[in-house]
Design goal:
20 strands, Rossmann fold, about 550 residues, alpha/beta, about 15% strand, 3 domains, six-stranded parallel beta sheet
Length: about 550
């Protein structure tokens, strides 16, 4: 037994989980825990300027590393409410973030005390689970529970509230068990009968297609998915935001499908007779929940680790509860043995020709004129971004257009807000991803509005030598909303235009490198220089403010146009 304060026990529990980095903002409510972190030999603390962006850093770290990302809000009340946006974002992305926050002393609860807010109720809807630790002796237990819940598929964020008196109290603690002793070590195996049925359906299909999502990407199972596609001799489409689930250069990679994807992949899913949805929900970003984006006559085989996701949005012919990677491996073995295989050569040949023509036409159609147009900017980026780069993105139409316009080397190379559609995510996420993968270049794309929300973290990047490259696509407006006002509200603009300081000069004031680009050649030169520099870098790119695009036209059908 060892006597420690609750704060010391919390840090010991983090060390027991092999936590390497804690993101956070200090506060008086958790000083015992910060004091214990000062003595930790294995945990690096990254002090941030806002709890929201600290949560995005933990989110990016988690997605890039495959481990839990940890964020610590030192102050109860306002320190914790700042976590809300980041945790809601992490929940939408199924990202394993362990969020720890100070909480009001137990004796002061329900007395309208200073900075009092019901943190238990606040976080419950936006996390997998929320705990308020009742006593010091239970601190390690609850932290263990938090990591276990966050890392159990489907992963997601958790919130642990630590009252001041719990952190200050002393208790006797037994030696902590290793994570392997309380973590799930296995995944559900797919039903063999359903696998055989699925193999027969796929082998007999004339127009099969595989759609993969986070279940393949997050488990780094791209080789299993590709082996299945090669055995079946059929193309793979990726769910939007998961365009890195398989390497761009593979000939069977059709790219991202759906209303936010490219025309080749989208056509495949609209015309397929059998769709294997492998580790994907077929959710909003992929389908808008509409048969406009998926063939209503297709037989759907859906493989998901989360049973409640199977058949939730579209009726399925077969629903298989299991790990996507293991299911892909077993289907490959079964299809390899199939005696009768449908002739899908015409389907594959048509796809291959269409894809080649699409990629060629995409480069040919890129507008390389001035002022800088999105298509020209994306073509320039394709030419200068390293093949091993991690790319993070915001929401907003420029980033949405960029998602399928860029090329990714493989899994854990693209991180977006996904279904939460958050502006102000990318820069902070990139900082977390860089800390998880310091050997890889990290490039963050944002609009000027989103970067303006979070640029205070330039201090964090400089102070801790987190050398990412942030490209601000600066069009002087909230582009998505201005496009809707133009297209559906007669150009009656209100609140659409914004002003910003010169971000390149601002970066230099923070101690980072700053670049201004007003031509595509300057963009290419700036990216190369920033990647070769030894500082965090910001590239302020002047994009044509008239280059607006209404992505969500479906939202305004009632207005015509």
């Amino acid at each position: 037994m060892k006597t420690m304060s609750g704060g010391q026990a919390a840090v010991a529990a983090l060390e027991n989980e092999d936590t390497e980095i804690v993101f956070g903002l200090i506060g008086s409510a958790t000083m015992e825990m910060f004091d214990a972190l000062h003595d930790s030999q294995s945990i690096r603390f990254i002090g941030v300027h806002d709890e929201r962006t600290g949560t995005h850093m933990a989110d990016g770290y988690a997605r890039a590393s495959g481990k839990a990302g940890v964020v610590l809000a030192g102050q109860n009340g306002p320190g914790t409410t700042n976590l809300v946006t980041g945790l809601a974002q992490a929940k939408a992305a199924f990202s394993p973030v362990v969020s720890i926050a100070g909480a009001l002393s137990t004796a002061h609860q329900y007395r309208d005390a200073f900075q009092e807010v019901d943190q238990q109720s606040l976080f419950t809807p936006i996390t997998k689970k929320t705990w308020t630790v009742p006593s010091a002796d239970r601190v390690p237990e609850i932290i263990r529970e938090g990591f276990r819940a966050a890392m159990t598929p489907r992963c997601g964020p958790v919130q642990i509230n630590l009252p001041r008196d719990v952190l200050a109290a002393q208790a006797d603690y037994a030696a902590m068990p290793s994570p392997a002793q309380y973590r799930n070590q296995s995944l559900p195996h797919p039903d063999s009968t359903l696998l055989e049925q699925a193999a027969r359906m796929l082998a007999s299909a004339a127009r099969p297609v595989i759609v993969i999502g986070g279940g393949i990407k997050n488990s780094m199972a791209h080789e299993d998915a590709l082996k299945l596609a090669e055995t079946l001799n059929t193309p793979i489409c990726t769910a939007p935001g998961h365009g890195d689930a398989i390497p761009f250069g593979h000939p069977l990679n059709a790219g991202q499908m759906g209303p936010r994807g490219n025309r080749v992949a989208s056509r495949l899913v609209r015309e397929a007779d059998v769709i294997l949805a492998l580790g994907t929900r077929l959710g909003f970003n992929s389908t808008f929940y509409s048969y406009d984006n998926i063939n209503a006559e297709a037989a759907i085989i859906q493989v998901e680790i989360e049973p409640t996701a199977i058949g939730r949005y579209f009726p399925v012919e077969l629903g298989i509860w299991g790990d996507a990677a293991e299911t892909a491996r077993q289907l490959t073995r079964l299809i390899e043995k199939a005696a009768d295989r449908a002739d899908a050569d015409a389907w594959l040949s048509a796809y291959a020709a269409e894809k080649a023509a699409f990629l060629k036409q995409r480069d040919a159609d890129a507008d390389m004129s001035l002022p800088i147009q999105p298509s020209g900017l994306f073509r320039t980026m394709r030419g200068v971004f390293p093949s091993d780069a991690i790319i993070t993105m915001d929401a907003g139409t420029l980033c949405l257009q960029a998602t399928d316009a860029l090329q990714y080397g493989g899994p854990r190379s693209l991180f977006t807000p996904l279904d939460f559609g958050l502006v102000g995510f990318s820069f902070a996420c990139g900082l977390g991803a860089k800390l998880a993968c310091p050997e890889r270049p990290v490039i963050s794309l944002m609009g000027d509005g989103g970067f303006g929300m979070t640029l205070s973290e330039l201090s964090t990047a400089v102070d801790y030598n987190i050398n990412t490259v942030t490209i601000v696509m600066n069009n002087g407006c909230w582009g998505a909303e201005k496009a809707y006002q133009r297209d559906f509200f007669g150009g009656r603009y209100i609140g659409a235009d914004i002003s910003s300081p010169p971000f390149d000069k601002l970066a230099e004031l923070y101690g980072a490198a700053g670049y201004k680009a007003e031509t595509l050649d300057e963009v290419g030169d700036a990216v190369k220089a920033a990647l070769n520099g030894n500082k965090p870098a910001v590239i302020d790119v002047a994009v044509d403010p008239a280059a607006l695009y209404s992505f969500r036209r479906d939202s305004f059908k009632h207005r015509g146009g």
